[in-house]
Amino acid sequence: MTAQPTPPSEPVEPPGPLEPSRPADADPAPGVAVVVVVPAFRVAEQIEAVLDGVPAWVRAVLVVDDASPDDLAARVERRGEERVELLRHERNQGVGGAVVTGFRRALELGADVVVKMDGDGQMDPAYLPALLEPLLAGEADLAKGNRYRDREALRDMPAERLVGNTGLTFLLKLASGHWDMFDPTNGYLALRVHVLRLLDLDRLPRDYFFESGLLIELGVLRARVRDVAIPARYGSEPSSLSVGGTLVGFPGRLVAGLCRRVARRYFLFDFTAVSAFLALGLPLFLFGVVFGAVHWIRSIRTGEVASTGTVMVAALPIILGFQLLLQALVVDIAERPSAPLSPPLRRDA
Ligand SMILES: Nc1nc2c(ncn2[C@@H]2O[C@H](COP(=O)(O)OP(=O)(O)OP(=O)(O)O)[C@@H](O)[C@H]2O)c(=O)[nH]1
Ligand SMILES: [Mg+2]
């Protein structure tokens, strides 16, 4: 039998600049109540353009003035737009605090989907239909932007942010269990209200850890998260995000989030192979490390070479423990949430 010539594989086009999948003004889901929450602080210059860009089919826009020192509230009120509601904080609560206030109001309004769109214009409303698509298609409970699919726009992202984000992404995959997602601090997100009701809003972080904290809480619930390729949009807007503060403040909270998720998933609500791997692997690994470290320091101090037995008593638990922890990781990845918690959204024909 003559070998079938393999058809020449299609040349893989490098991903060009991303384009919105459909015109933003076409209502993607008639009958579905979409509410947009805009946390606002020091964005008076950008807020009107942001509100202009929100598609007409959005049911309500909740601008949360987080005790901003500029005149953004006056600018919003001056518009007199019926669907725009201004919620004001007496005291600054941080981006997370502002979003939670908006979430609570969206619940009161009976929304089906709540969207977070920042007030500084960095989130392109033209991508709103694309962002909602995984929710409308019943594939996810939360959909969020991913800036890393568009190399063009990525060039504008500050280098330290690029590096910081990549490192943070792995830690957050581990802490939240959403192993498929990337760019976790991307604040452009849409959430099913069905799942919002399951969340303890008081647990959500008030500061820049908001997005990470939300992903961890959704991971604890085993909600499904999907990424949507949306390019970053950086303009002249000021930023108050300190990269240093992130690198210092985040890891500890991520570890706390990981412990919470693992404790609830594998010990409180269920007991699976991962629970056994962790219950065996962690003590073994820690024992080996501590035992090894103690004998190593002793042999350095005394100059005595540790016996083979001592080395084996340290090394074996480390190797075995590490293997078991790796197994737990592999199974945790394999068992990531595969279906949304939310029932399909009803859509008028
Ligand atoms: N910085 C800051 N932003 C707040 C606060 N409350 C609400 N926000 C709004 O939260 C959104 C996100 O804040 P940004 O400072 O833009 O954070 P970021 O987008 O992660 O950082 P940049 O990419 O540098 O803009 C913006 O719309 C802010 O106006 C607050 O207390 N501090
Ligand atoms: Mg911003």
Summarize this structure briefly.
With 349 residues, the protein is α/β, with parallel strands linked by helices. The protein contains eleven helices and seven strands. It has a seven-stranded mixed β-sheet, with helices on both faces.
Distinctive features:
349 residues; alpha/beta; Spore Coat Polysaccharide Biosynthesis Protein SpsA, Chain A; 2 domains; seven-stranded mixed β-sheet; 7 strands; disordered N terminus; binds guanosine-5'-triphosphate; binds magnesium ion
Number of strands: 7
What class would the helix/strand composition place it in? alpha/beta
List the total number of helices.
11
The portion of residues assigned to helices is 40-55%
Order of helices and strands: EHEHEHEHEHHEHHEHHH
Average residue pLDDT: 89
CATH fold description of the largest domain: Spore Coat Polysaccharide Biosynthesis Protein SpsA, Chain A
Proportion of residues in extended strands: 5-15%
CATH 2nd-level architecture of the largest domain:
Alpha-Beta Complex
The whole-angstrom Rg is: 24 Å
The ligands bound in this entry are: guanosine-5'-triphosphate, magnesium ion
Alpha carbon gap, first and last residue: 53 Å
Strand order of the largest sheet: 3-2-1-4-6-5-7
Per the principal axes of the C-alpha atoms, what is the gross shape?
elongated
The domain tally reads: 2
Largest sheet: 7 strands, mixed
CATH superfamily of the largest domain: Spore Coat Polysaccharide Biosynthesis Protein SpsA, Chain A
- Given as residue ranges, the uncertain stretches (5+ residues, pLDDT < 50) are 1-8
